[in-house]
Amino acid sequence: MKKSKTQLSSGLHALLWKEGNLHVVKCLEIEVTSQGKTKKEALSNLEEALSLYFEDESITNPSPLKDVELHTVSFAYA
To answer: pTM for this structure?
Structure first.
């Protein structure tokens, strides 16, 4: 029997950056990452990867993070 698809009503956050010639995108709430030649392709690939990740899972809407901020940090090491 084919499962019906469930659309999540709350948006998840994705962090996108460039690595060489590829755009890399990572979902912050769920440890899923994807890539693409363009930002649009990378985001589309992430959506597909998330669909596959939850394909066999019985899930409820993941709680999106609140007040997401990106900071640059410095550190020292020996």
So the answer is: 0.76
DSSP-assigned beta bridge partners for residue 17: 24
User: Above 70 in pLDDT, residue 4?
Assistant: no
How far apart (Å, rounded) are the C-alpha atoms in residues 26 and 63? 16
Q: How far, in Å, CA of 12 to CA of 28, rounded? A: 7
CA atoms in the 13 A half-sphere facing the CB of 65: 11
CB 23 within 8 A of CB 16: yes
Digit-coded pLDDT (tens) for 30-72: 889 999 999 999 999 999 999 898 887 766 667 778 888 888 9
Q: Which amino acid is at 20?
A: G
Of 68, 37, 55, 57, nearest to 45 (Cα)? 37
Q: Which amino acid is at 67?
A: D
